[in-house]
């Protein structure tokens, strides 16, 4: 099978074919970009972006059914004329994971609106009783969520306890206090993991306030640091969004940076 389009459109086609996406990631190869998409029914799709080749893996019966479903929906998609509104960035949403820093959240939200992008903030929606991962999958299948931003701000304090550490003695308690660092809320770390499972890593950005304890195992995720105001990250964040197929005119960029 062949497919020439975007990763987002391919993801939408898979969802419309009746499959939930368990994981979507860019495989690490020296060769051109290869994306791997794992589905809920056991099938795996490898998309070779440079050639357009689609490779399906899995048990024979699952594999054949996935191929049939994909071929049908790829054929339907090819007969639909492309629409200018489909690629309009104003139709795209960015999912925001955040903690208690309302000022940083509002600053980010305002900048995205100035760029013509609708921020998707779970607390601002009814949620329809869905969990964050259910909401993410639903919005991704609808083709609206194109990027995720995680705000890591000074919401909690904590430190890692070593295996042989004693904390009952005064001197030990003093050492503990010296180790305590600001960290993001635990639900933010959890939701960040959910986001990483739902979107390719190159479509996620972490905005980290300086001095915060960084979560482990976030290698490969793009992150930007800021000292006082999240707007310090905007120039590079805009570049990152442009790399992810968002397009802005000079007036939008100027407005967002001011």
Care to describe what's here?
The chain is of the alpha/beta class. The protein has two domains: 7-80, Nuclear Transport Factor 2, Chain: A, CATH 3.10.450; 86-257, Rossmann fold (3-Layer(aba) Sandwich). The protein is 36% helix and 21% strand. It is built from eight helices and eleven strands. The strands form three sheets. Strands 6-5-7-10-11 form a five-stranded parallel beta sheet, sandwiched between helices. Strands 1-2-3-4 form a four-stranded antiparallel beta sheet. Helix 3 packs antiparallel against helix 8. The longest helix has 19 residues, at 60-78. The chain is globular, with a radius of gyration of 21 Å. It comes from Bartonella grahamii (strain as4aup).
Summarize the structure in short:
The protein is of the alpha/beta class. The protein has 8 helices and 11 strands. The chain has helices spanning 7-16, 60-78, 102-114, 132-141, 170-179, 186-198, 234-243, 250-257, and strands at residues 21-26, 34-39, 44-48, 53-57, 93-97, 118-120, 145-152, 156-158, 181-183, 204-209, 222-226.
């Amino acid at each position: 099978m062949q497919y020439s389009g975007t990763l987002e459109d391919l993801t939408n086609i898979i969802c419309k074919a009746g499959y939930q996406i368990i994981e979507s990631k860019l495989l690490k190869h020296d060769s051109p970009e290869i994306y791997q998409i794992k589905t809920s029914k056991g099938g795996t799709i490898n998309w070779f972006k440079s050639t357009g080749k689609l490779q399906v893996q899995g048990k024979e019966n699952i594999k054949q059914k996935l191929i049939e479903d994909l071929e049908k929906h790829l054929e339907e998609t090819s007969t639909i004329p492309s629409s200018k509104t489909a690629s309009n960035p104003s139709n795209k949403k960015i999912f925001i994971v955040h903690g208690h820093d309302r000022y940083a959240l509002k600053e980010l939200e305002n900048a995205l609106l100035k760029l013509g992008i609708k921020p998707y903030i779970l607390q601002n929606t009814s949620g329809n009783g869905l969990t964050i991962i259910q909401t993410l999958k639903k919005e991704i299948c609808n083709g609206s969520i194109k990027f995720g931003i995680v705000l890591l701000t000074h919401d909690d304090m904590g430190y890692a306890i070593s295996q042989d550490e004693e904390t009952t003695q005064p001197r030990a308690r003093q050492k503990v206090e010296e180790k305590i660092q600001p960290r993001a809320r635990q639900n933010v770390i959890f939701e960040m993991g959910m986001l990483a499972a739902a979107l390719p890593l190159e479509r996620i950005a972490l905005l980290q306030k300086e001095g915060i304890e960084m979560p482990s195992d976030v290698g490969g995720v793009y992150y930007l640091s800021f000292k006082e105001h999240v707007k310090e990250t905007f120039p590079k964040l805009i570049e990152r969004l442009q790399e992810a197929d968002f397009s802005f005119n000079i007036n939008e960029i100027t407005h967002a940076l001011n």
